[in-house]
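Lab notebook: predicted structure, single chain.

Context: the supervisor wants predicted structures on file for every construct in the current expression panel, including those that have not yet been purified. This is the next one on the list. No modifications to the sequence; it matches the entry in the shared construct table.
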Amino acid sequence: MRTLYLDCGMGAAGDMLTAALLELMPDPAAAVAELNALGIPGVRFAASQAVKCGITGTHVTVTVNGEEEEDLHTHSHGDHVHHEHGHGEHAHTHHEHHHDEHAHSHDEHAHHHDGHAHGHHAHSSLHDIAHLVRGHLPLSERVKDDVMAVYQLIAEAESHAHGVPVTDIHFHEVGTLDAVADIAAVCLLMERLAPDEVVVSPVHVGSGQVRCAHGILPVPAPATAYILKDVPIYGGAVRGELCTPTGAALLKHFATRFGDLPVMRVQAIGYGMGKRDFGAANCVRAMLGERECAVDEICELRCNVDDMTGEAAGHAVEQLFAAGALDVSTAPIGMKKNRPGLLLSVMCREADREAVLRAMFQHTTTLGVRESKCRRYVLDRRSETIETPYGAVRRKLSSGYGVRREKYEYEDLARIAQARGVSLSAAQALAAQCARQAGHIETQQLEKEGT
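Prediction complete. Output recorded below exactly as produced.
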């Protein structure tokens, strides 16, 4: 299984993730050229060598119309903020800005528009960003979906932090281009690297406070903290904002799971550097390699019966699953005296063998059970729940051995299909659309089919 491990022991920011993934590419220079070919208005990517604590890595700079976004804000007020590059330098000085304030409610938008007439203080809504990403960037549909899903996480976090609807959240124009560049870069590089799974370490968020337009806030700042709900995070002695909202949203979107470095054969290592120097190397480390899929041993228990009714056999199958069976199957067989019979095969884990054996003897007419030990090779599997306008749909995801699969629960699709008067395929298409767009979808097509 192709596994990407992201070590976020010094947090994460969009530019650092971009740099770390670039180092994993077969030709980083060609990858930078591809990023510049995206044609994001006024944006240019540049990669340079950087050294932190004696370790050499890559630093990525994103400029908008020839200037870094932090430079563009040097002469502006502290409430015009989105300071993604070189995380950690945002806190504790009078001139530092915070990404969390890059988004404002509609009323704040009007205030800034009237009070600060500088050209680069224009704002963009989430709709404007979607128009740019989906209508003008030469990206695959998958990458576009990833970009907008990440932006949706950020917008929802800003909405929660400011207490206004997502539709009233506006992003400063220059900061928007800067963030679109970071997010699009990571999403595109993820598509090129195509890992089967992404494992992310617990995230170091830093400590202390950060200055923003509304005053001094604790680290992690509200939007970052909201995005990192249900994610293992920790603080420490490092003073500063180590994880930005963009970094947090990218990790949240792409992580298959959070945890320690798994057992894997590492084939490539990348270091994405921040700007500020700490006692520890200020970087995100990315490791790409192969991890063996799960192998376990199971018991296969079998018996032949020729004196059970179909109803009794069906009841026995249900009871075997209740006893801990992993799988139960039946097959017709011919038995002695030319009587038709039934072969009952049950797979279970070693720990459940006794309970399953008892159930086989209790609920079938067999007088004996045969046992075989088997090695089983399985894909990694997990399940999740997709929220749709018509209720929750469970989805099973599996990956490994170079394949990826997904399957929606039939019962959930059937419920939606019956309620809306549409086909199963239409119900599945709705669930898939909701999965791609994080629950924010248009349902006109389904509604039309249901009329």
